[in-house]
Write a structure and sequence with these properties.
single chain, 530 residues, alpha/beta, eight-stranded parallel beta sheet, three-stranded antiparallel beta sheet, 17 helices, 13 strands, binds flavin mononucleotide, binds iron/sulfur cluster
Length: 530
């Protein structure tokens, strides 16, 4: 026994000595050369630093992209656990410039129901009919104002895509395919927005050129309700992408229409159009050939493009049916730090600039606006609706709902929760059936909160919240109304009068109203008593 312990100790010493010698002789790391053995501690702490900070050090309102409170709210909502918070806010609201305040109305038109679960299963459709203004044959009113944003099969695992698609079906919302094509994982009942990126994955020929016939076959054989032309993404505008050959499995290759095992490149620009004029021609071609509403997705930088686009839409009669604006704070599977941190405007600033250009040309009521960029949190989403969004997309919040722990290793293929990896061992940990329920629970809870806040503001639907209902704090003693912050004119941010009336009527029919006890005999008959 003693001899065994001695042998083990000698082996351990030899191993440590070998590492020390290697550290001393190597030239790559000065730290290890100077501090053999103990220098490894620094690399270990660097590797597990995010987890350490997240679980041990960070306060409730720290950590980015999503704070601990925000993640806790998503996780609890996804599991249908108690997602309330006790004692009051721990946000530093009085001292945080830019903090949004939503102004409730004492006697509003909408009367919320008092049951705690009221609104959970509520129907919360879009206030606009996508494609109606341009007479698209397959125009439709999306059933949900919250939808799942573009994330490709390739960036996400097959199980993650399946969980999201099943979750979308359960919650009655749309699921954007992302630019990586339409895979079998997208075919579990959730209706789709098919995204067309620069590589035309899923609708390209053998030479990588856009192939209209393939697109038409694809949308005819799947529940595709709309097409989204991707111009850029907030986290990496103007960049293409590369999926290394090692990750291009047969399944990914089939979805994209590329050879397996070979580096899969997305160019940085489209080949089918080169300016706003030719973009509009192409959008009209796609709409005419498929009958579907067609939109564009873009981050916001220089405004020349938007000026040209809106001027052409106002003067030539051509147009897109929806516009998705992605904020610079948006997510990605992988991108250079300079792009994620600095290129393209954050959502509120970028969206308001673009919306105003549509509104100045009187186009805003005939285009549906979708926002993305941390809008899967109710407070951010409400500001987006007030600014004129008709729907919001959620990407990373939906990832959190299906198990993402914000380890931020999506670019390494080592995602510990199986969400953003193609590693078979890691993806098998993600049960798509269980996680689909989590995704649906989260989506429904977000919609419930949006309805509750809309009712607190006195209206039936978040799309009816106007800019006057939101103020932005300038610090402890001052606040500025949202319309003044962004230079909006009266009425901007709202759908047309006809769309407002239609959505209010739909909501009143779908969601019973009334929160008070029955009136007393003395109140009955008095004007204003319920
Ligand atoms: C893993 C991952 C993959 C993504 N893939 C795409 C994509 O294929 N096309 C696209 O337009 N945006 C893509 N995005 C951006 C999202 O669709 C979304 O616009 C952005 O993350 C902002 O939403 P969020 O803040 O809710 O995450 C991706 C984001 C993530 C996190
Ligand atoms: S858990 Fe996975 S998906 Fe979430 S941030 Fe980490 S690596 Fe990315």
């Amino acid at each position: 026994m003693k001899r065994g312990i001695r042998a083990a100790t000698a082996a351990a010493f030899s191993a440590v000595a070998a590492v020390a010698v290697r550290d001393l002789l190597q030239r790559d790391h000065a730290l290890l050369r100077n501090f053999p053995i103990i220098g490894h501690g620094r690399y270990l702490i660097e590797a597990i630093g995010p987890e350490l900070r997240q679980y041990v050090v960070a306060a409730n309102d720290e950590e980015r992209p999503f704070t601990r409170d925000q993640r806790r709210w998503v996780y609890a909502s996804a599991k249908k656990e108690n997602n309330y918070f006790g004692f009051g806010t721990d946000n530093d609201m009085e001292y945080t410039a830019g903090y949004p305040i939503i102004k409730h109305r004492t006697f509003g038109r909408a009367v919320p129901r008092s049951a705690p679960a009221a609104g959970y299963e509520a129907y919360l459709p879009c206030a606009k009919v996508l494609g109606a203004a341009r007479g698209r044959p397959r125009a439709f009113r999306p059933d949900s104002v919250v939808n799942i944003s573009a994330m490709s099969f390739g960036a996400l695992s097959g199980n993650a895509v399946e969980a999201l698609n099943r979750g979308a079906a359960m919650a009655g919302c749309l699921h954007n395919t992302g630019e990586g094509g339409l895979s079998p994982h997208h075919r579990h009942g959730g209706e789709l927005i098919f995204q067309i990126g620069t590589a035309y994955f899923g609708c390209r020929d053998e030479r990588g050129r856009f192939d209209l016939r393939r697109l038409k076959d694809l949308v005819a054989g799947a529940p595709v309700r709309a097409l989204e032309i991707k111009l850029s993404q907030g986290a990496k505008p103007s960049l293409g992408g590369l999926l290394p050959g090692a990750k291009v499995s047969a399944e990914i290759a089939a979805a994209r229409g590329v050879p397996p095992g070979v580096d899969c490149v997305s160019p940085s620009r489209h080949a089918e159009f080169s300016d706003a004029d030719s973009l509009l021609d192409w959008a009209e071609l796609l709409a005419a050939e498929t009958g579907l509403p067609v939109g564009i997705k873009s981050a916001v930088g220089d405004l020349d493009f938007w000026d040209e686009l809106t001027t052409l839409m106002a003067t030539t009669g051509r147009g897109v049916d929806f516009v998705t604006i992605d904020g610079g704070e948006g997510g990605t599977g992988a991108a250079p730090l300079i792009f994620t941190d600095t290129v393209s405007l954050p959502f509120q600033v970028g969206f308001a600039r673009v919306y105003k250009m549509f509104a100045e040309r009187n186009l805003h009521e005939n285009v549906a606006f979708i926002g993305a960029g941390k809008l899967g949190l109710p407070d951010n989403a409400i500001v987006a609706f007030a600014l004129g969004c008709d729907m919001v997309y959620v990407a990373r919040e939906a990832m959190l709902a299906i198990g993402c722990v914000q380890a931020q290793k999506c670019h390494t293929d080592t995602c510990p929760t199986g969400v953003a990896t193609q590693n078979r061992w890691l993806t098998r940990g993600l049960d798509p059936t269980l996680k689909s329920v989590r995704a649906a629970n989260y989506l429904k809870t977000l919609r419930r909160d949006l309805i509750k806040v809309a009712e607190a503001c006195g209206v039936e639907h978040p799309g009816l919240i106007d800019t006057a209902s939101v103020e932005i704090l300038d610090g402890r003693t001052a606040a500025t109304a949202l319309d003044r912050v962004y230079g909006y004119r009266p009425g901007w941010g709202l759908p047309s009068a006809a769309d407002q009336a239609a959505i209010a009527e739909l909501m009143r029919a779908a969601e019973p109203q009334g929160g008070s006890a029955p009136p007393s005999p003395s109140a009955t008959g008095r004007p204003g008593a319920r």
